[in-house]
């Protein structure tokens, strides 16, 4: 049978897919970490990102999959308090760490940032919002720990890696400033 016969090509494609599935099954790792205050274990291929593990194994779809290459910030979560791009972080790197997603922000009642986004109309389509919230939460916590109140320019710089195609950013900055006032900044500028 010639190499370009459709049956030969189908057979080869099927064999390649089977080989890939077998190799992925061999490479599965179990990773244990703390997720929004709960201990979790997740089994995922070693090359999977934290974003994939959160969305496609743990069902937490609040963390958005935008560019998948570090450009948009929609996938931002916190790892040990730091804002991290989960599309550029391997799931295995979360082992033993404390991971927080938007689902863990404001459990029981909305976090001041969530209330401020609502008050200020800072979310339109909402796709960027979970990443914005997690970046802003990390930034405000770090400023408070350092005893500082962030200026509007500093907030804008801190959110520079989070892109929004809807709001024009003004209302997002208003909201983060409002939340900072409510949370109580450190005072020094
Ligand atoms: S999805 Fe991670 S930066 Fe865009
Ligand atoms: S609200 Fe639509 S991308 Fe920001």
Give the helices and strands, then pairings.
Layout: H1 6-26, E1 28-35, E2 38-45, H2 50-57, E3 76-79, E4 82-85, E5 98-100, H3 112-120, H4 129-145, H5 152-158, H6 170-183
Parallel strand pairs: 1-5
Antiparallel strand pairs: 1-2, 3-4, 3-5
This protein binds FE2/S2 (inorganic) cluster (2 copies).
Residues 123-128, 164-167 line the site of one FE2/S2 (inorganic) cluster (FES).
Walk me through this protein's architecture.
The protein has 189 residues and is an alpha+beta fold. It has two domains: 78 residues, Roll (Ubiquitin-like (UB roll)), CATH 3.10.20; 72 residues, DNA polymerase, domain 1, CATH 1.10.150.120. It has six helices and five strands; from the N terminus they run αββαβββαααα. The chain has a five-stranded mixed β-sheet with strand order 2-1-5-3-4, with helices on both faces. Helix 3 packs antiparallel against helix 6. The chain is elongated and about 70 Å long. Bound molecules: FE2/S2 (inorganic) cluster (2 copies). The site of one FE2/S2 (inorganic) cluster has 12 residues, from loops.
Q: Structural class of the secondary elements? A: alpha+beta
Describe the largest sheet.
5 strands, mixed
Helix percent reads: 40-55%
Instruction: Report the strand count.
Output: 5
Please, how many helices? 6
- Could you say what the CATH topology of the largest domain is called? Ubiquitin-like (UB roll)
What is the average per-residue confidence, as pLDDT, rounded to a whole number?
92
List the ligand species.
FE2/S2 (inorganic) cluster
Radius of gyration: 21 Å
Contiguous uncertain segments of 5+ residues: none
CATH domain class name of the largest domain:
Alpha Beta
Order of helices and strands: HEEHEEEHHHH
Q: What is the terminal separation in angstroms?
A: 77 Å
Backbone shape: elongated
CATH homologous superfamily (4th level) name of the largest domain: Beta-grasp domain
* Beta-strand content: 5-15%
